[in-house]
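User: Could you go from structure to sequence for me? I need the amino acid at each position, not a summary. Structure tokens:
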């Protein structure tokens, strides 16, 4: 079940992008989610990220992330009005508490908590998109050109949990085929069964590390200049997606400088749309960020477009 949260090669458009382009797209989404405070902009980034996840065939995986994220958003929306008393629109005066004082619920605190909840959804969804589209080995291969030893350590660390999860599942299935029932028996008996399971996992992990060390020694790791077995090519699709990301980032910087991407929550709520420029900047930013999802839709349905990009 945990395997769905890790990268799985499906031959999709977003997975075929150059690692640098995919990382740039994810980074722009993350930076804009942190830079914008306007609730409509945050909601727009959420929609764009959802479209990208849909293009990456990750809706089922995204649901698992949302089940955890929605509880966190609920806590943010509940705790923020209780601890923050700023705001002029008072909705409710509560009793006095020994440490917190008198409870005061304001409309501004509720709206700010809701906006921060949407930002949290944005960030969790962006990390979900990263797991769906960015191959960890190709990404670390990109950075290994500058620091190959550090990249190797990071690669081994990031692969540790997925590999151990797969090994645990295989060992458990083998034990069940031999007649071991992990649900039967008393608590002490079940603990003993799981203890033997972890012992086997530890032994197999040590054997795997020895095999990896032997493979690195056979390939003369660290004895000379690093060679590259597989090279990534920069194709027209990469140029289009990179241009869309850079365009959205430039427009977003312009909007933030001129105050289009910011919003006033305290002491009183501001206007959602302060002129047509706010909508224009929003449409430009979301248009550039939606380009990869749009190209993915066309790439799947148009053979001519697939051959050109």
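Assistant: Here is the amino acid at each position, in order:
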């Amino acid at each position: 079940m945990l395997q769905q949260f890790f990268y799985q090669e499906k031959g999709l458009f977003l997975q075929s992008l150059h690692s640098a382009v995919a990382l740039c797209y994810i980074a722009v989404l993350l930076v804009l989610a942190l830079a914008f405070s306007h609730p409509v902009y945050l909601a727009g980034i959420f929609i764009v990220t959802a479209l990208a996840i849909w293009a990456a065939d990750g809706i089922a995986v995204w649901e698992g992330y949302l089940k955890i994220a929605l509880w966190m958003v609920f806590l943010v929306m509940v705790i923020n009005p209780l601890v923050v008393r700023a705001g002029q629109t008072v909705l409710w005066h509560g009793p006095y508490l020994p440490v917190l004082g008198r409870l005061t619920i304001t409309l501004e605190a509720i709206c700010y908590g809701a906006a921060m909840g949407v930002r949290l959804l944005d960030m969790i969804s962006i990390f979900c998109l990263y797991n769906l589209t960015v191959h960890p080995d190709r990404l670390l291969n990109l950075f290994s050109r500058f620091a190959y030893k550090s990249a190797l350590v990071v690669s081994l660390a990031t692969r540790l949990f997925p590999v151990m999860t797969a090994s645990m599942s295989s060992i458990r299935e083998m034990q069940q085929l031999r007649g071991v029932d992990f649900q039967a028996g008393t608590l002490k008996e079940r603990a003993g069964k799981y203890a033997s399971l972890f012992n086997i996992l530890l032994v197999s992990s040590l054997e795997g590390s020895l095999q990896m060390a032997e493979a690195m020694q056979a390939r003369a790791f660290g004895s000379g200049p690093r060679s590259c077995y597989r090279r990534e090519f920069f194709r027209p699709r990469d140029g289009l997606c990179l241009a869309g990301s850079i365009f959205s980032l430039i427009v977003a910087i312009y909007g933030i400088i001129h105050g289009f991407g910011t919003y006033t929550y305290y002491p009183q709520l501001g206007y959602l749309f302060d002129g047509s420029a706010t909508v224009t900047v929003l449409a430009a930013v979301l248009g550039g960020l939606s380009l990869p999802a749009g190209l993915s839709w066309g790439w799947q349905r148009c053979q001519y477009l697939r051959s050109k990009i």
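One structural detail worth keeping in mind: DSSP finds eleven helices and two strands in the chain.
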